[in-house]
Design brief:
Elements lengths: L3 E10 L2 E11 L4 E5 L6 H8 L7 E6 L8 H7 E4 L11 H11 L4 H15 L14 H13 L5 E5 L7 H16 L3 E6 L2 H7 L2 E6 L2 E7 L6 H11 L17
Parallel strand pairs: 3-7, 3-8, 5-6, 6-7
Antiparallel strand pairs: 1-2, 1-4, 8-9
Helix pairs in contact: 3-4, 3-5, 4-5
Keywords: ATP-binding, Nucleotide-binding, Transport
Protein name: ABC transporter ATP-binding protein
InterPro entries: AAA+_ATPase, ABC_transporter-like_ATP-bd, ABC_transporter_ATP-binding, P-loop_NTPase
Length: 251
């Protein structure tokens, strides 16, 4: 059974069809790239997967659970990193991560252990007691990444994971995502960055006009030009991103 399964998902906002017959599956052990330009329907799909919005039609299961009818169970087992999300301004990173761990039913000792581990891994140990209003946008993004993983979820849904991070931390996060999927978890990364998709994903679905218009397996390796060509063929020159290649870090 797929860790994530979406069949014929549709969602409109007034006369605008944001998602139009979206279908795909993500297996455990996969790092699936959801690649498309802004406005392609990526964020609406993620919000449906996490039970934040109710689609007009279609079926969704995440770890065998319907996120629309049982959103709390879905969020308990799933890590979520929203695009441009921010921690609560009135909490410190430690307080926020402890809150998230408690909501996700972690034992207090495990919460403390995971909080310290993530602060060390992402380099914000000396900011654990600092209010989020006093953190830089990059530091806040590190905290948001930590909260998505602090409860050791089986599925992680990530919207533009590298926003506001410096290049060194970007590479660290990319390597961690690859390792996390390789351990048997399902990692779903939504991005408009072709280079990010090519460098870490095992499979990519190209999204346009609210549906997946092409899929490509990257497990056997593919050069940047090939993925870019597929993107241009199905999406068009106007939505292409002229990004430098960094090379694949997939094992």
């Amino acid at each position: 059974m797929d860790a994530i399964r979406v069949d014929e998902l549709c969602k409109s906002y007034g006369s605008v069809r944001a998602v139009d017959g979206m279908s795909f599956g993500v297996e455990r052990g996969e790092l699936f790239g959801f690649l498309g330009p802004n406005g392609a329907g990526k964020t609406t799909t993620i919000r449906s997967l996490t039970g934040q919005i109710r689609p007009d039609s279609g079926e969704i299961t995440v770890l065998g659970t319907d996120p629309i009818t049982d959103p709390l169970e879905t969020r308990r087992r799933v890590g979520i990193l929203p695009e441009q999300g921010s921690p609560p301004s009135f909490l410190t990173p430690r307080e926020y991560l402890e809150f998230v761990g408690t909501v996700r039913d972690l034992e207090p000792d495990r919460i403390r252990e995971n909080t310290e581990r993530w602060a060390d891994r992402l380099g914000f140990q000396n900011k654990l007691e600092t209010l989020h209003t006093d953190l830089s946008r990059g530091q806040q993004q590190k905290v948001m990444i930590a909260q998505a993983f602090v409860h050791d979820p089986e599925v992680v849904l990530i919207d533009e994971p590298l926003a506001n991070l410096d290049p060194l931390v970007q590479e660290q996060v990319k390597r961690f995502l690859v390792d996390y999927a390789a351990k048997g978890n399902a990692v779903f990364v939504s991005t408009h960055n072709i280079d990010v998709a090519e460098s870490i994903c095992t499979r990519v679905g190209i999204v346009a006009d609210g549906a997946i218009v092409a899929e490509r397996s990257l497990e056997d390796g593919v050069d940047d030009a090939s993925l870019l060509e597929v993107f241009l063929e199905h999406v068009g020159d106007a939505d292409a991103r002229d990004l430098p290649a960094t090379g694949s870090i997939r094992p």
